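Hi,

I'm pasting everything inline rather than attaching a file, because the server keeps stripping attachments. The sequence lines come first, and each chain or strand is labelled.
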Amino acid sequence: MRHLFRRILFYILAIWISVTLNFFIPRLAPGNPAEAMLTRLERRGPISPATQKALEAAFGVNTTDSLWLQYGKYLNNLLHGNFGISYIEYPTPVITIIGQNIVWTLILGAVAVIISFALGCLLGVIMAWKRGSFVDTFLAPAMTFLSAIPYFWLALIILYVFGFTLNWFPFSDGYDTSLDVGWNSAFIFSAVYHAILPALTIVLSSIAGWLLVMRNTMITTLSEDYVLMANAKGLTKGRVMFFYAARNAILPNITGFALALGTIVGGQLLTEIVFSYPGIGFSLLQAVQGQDYPLLQAIFLFIALAVLGANFLADLAFVALDPRVRQERSA
Amino acid sequence: MAPNLFSSIGGKKYRVGISLVSFLVIMAFVVAACGNGGSGSQGKTDKKHVLNIGSHVGGDFTSALSPYNPTQVNEGIQGMVYETLLFFNRNDGKITPLLAADYKWSSDEKQLTFTTRQGVKWSDGQPFTAHDVAFTFNMLKQYPAADSKGIWPYLSSVNATDDNTVVVTFQKPNPPLLWYIGGQTWIVPEHIFKNVDPTKTQNQNPIGTGPFTFNKFSPQVLVYKRNPGYWDANDIKVDELDYPAVKDNATLQLKMMQGQIDWGSFFAPNLDQTFVAKDPTHNHYWMSPTDMFTLYINLTKAPFNQVEVRQAISAALDRSQLSQQAESGYVAPASTTGLILPNGNSYLDPTYQTVQAKADAAKAAQLLQSAGYSKGSDGIFAKNGKELSFSIKVVNGWTDWETMAAVIKQNLHNAGINATVDDIQDTAYFDARNNGNFDALIGGLFGGPTPFYLYDTHLNSVNLSPKGYNWGKWNDSQTDKLLQAYSSTLDPDKQKLAIQGLEKIYATQLPNIPLVNAASWYEYSTKNFTGWPDKSNPYAVGAAYAVPDDLIVIRHLTPVN
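And the predicted assembly:
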């Protein structure tokens, strides 16, 4: 119990620090949101000074409140779940923007990470089991090669070849925008169809990490006495491979997996940019460029919560998977 | 095999994972089998003529359907739904009546009378009258945030004297204000806007007089349908407008090349090769020069307060190189008179006919010597032991400006001036520009239907930054007097004389150093629609974001077949 209590205290402290940084860091940048907004409007011609005043008033950036008072108000609003109104998409509430985008990010990210993790671990187990075979000697360097390609470049090439030149897949958007969003087959089909290329690039670029870690830990585990013992008992090959060796070898990857799930919320920034895919990463970029404090703060808060939450889950998963941790705790 | 591994972790996750994997694999096969069939929006074969417009580059759409939302107004609201009284063609200065059938100045130029068009209806069926016009202007008075062009400081009242007449009364004569009053004010219905703040209202169901009505909002696309009750319905041949949200210029260009977008507005280098050559019969662009790029110099600082230094910098520039390398030759080198040519040709003082396109290092050297500079051993001019050296700020990621800055740096170096490029983030740039924290920076000069607007916006001492757009801080009584002379008369000869006086000041004093013209970016495809504005028929500025030019363009378009 004391362990758990300590962990929770740690998480609360971490959240407070991230919330505080969220508030101060964006405000250190030069300029203010009203100026940033005016620059967007400038392409339609000059704008009277009155408009800038009005924007500043609307955004509440011309306030005479001290920074500390603003910080207090910000914390108070957060506690009440009030994230405010976005500047760049004024007057849409921040929560609506996040709601619109996070679905895309979560589905694409989760599917891609799960596929990548599952495939990577599975291949890693097989490669370690058949160490020195053709699969092992060929796949390991091939995967390393793939993951060494800078992600944006890989994505651009795939987009250009499959999306633009061959025209097999769409090269932008999350769905065919002439369709209505909803639970109808046309929309779902279109959404899946649009997700294939982005998901493929994420899997291709991340699979090697899972695979190599899994393979290397598995090799160490395979030389353990209990694996020898299991083999000696005459257990089936599959049982030894997965229940005895893989179960122990997967521990480092579980931590990685939990962290990867946590970072999904932050969005697949490059993927979303290259494929013009809707999502939280692109919103974040826009928010930074437009000095949209409320949107920035909210997105960062969600990312922090997701990462910490994932960490917590990883802690729990370890307890379930690794008896040693369990015993230490109860001791 | 796989089941064992995952069931040891937890059966649920495994099942979800595997079913997702198999689902995706199956989908991939299905899609591959479909081949090319599934993409694009050309599937609409039933004679509905849909125009796809790529004017929104950036994030998702916000439901901002009031034409007076101060942050951003959705594409199509201004022009397609809400109209102005008049249309000013910035290419040639011609004025076309829209909601106003006619307008007249009183002899003392203090009263402007509009006669509104008869038989116009709002899209909800209510009649449009002069009272709506008067209401709109008085609404701007009540909500100054909506008055983004700053009209009211110059007006005393706006009244509808009957159903078809609106009288605008000025505090003192100011005829150039007609552009903002007639050409940039969106007339809204009194019965809808009576009790709302136009800058805050969501205006979910916009009611306008324009040729289109708002049909569907989604964060990714805006859809407009033809308004059958439009006062000039016979001229509208387009049935539907789709404005997709496109995330960046590169994607927009790809979409245009695949025919998913008919009308675009973006900058991309080398369009001849990357865009036009792919389909020379249909793919076109026309970069109508509407504004200007200039090198702002901080006139409050040495050495720029010396006119010879400014002239030397100007002489050292190779403007044709700037035009070719930075703007792919889309726009011509700028005239140092501040006139956007050829649009302003009729105002041009013949003395300044030639635009200095090539660098003249000898002249620059001579000018610097006359200012007391001498060349040091490293080839850089210096005065009192201080080298002639300054920094040029540009916005990081605005590639045409970055290229310009690099060319300028090299040009100046050839002439013995040491310039460094300070490539900064956009917000930092605007902060520096608006507050005068710079040596030099590349910036824009906004044009208008006549050359007056550029001079007034950027040189008038009432517009000194940070209040206005006079970022170089040019404060000159002679300039102010000429601007006053122009804006207090309707006599075209007197106006021309004032403009020519301003040209002379610009060319000799160089309040800033014009570089190249700036265009309203405009690309279009004649595959589905014809009748686009172009160089031979410049009836409007082509950029899809130019308002109310978008309205004029839509009235000219005809579907193919």
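Chain A touches chain B through 81 residues (CB under 8 Å).

If the labels don't parse on your end, tell me and I'll reformat.
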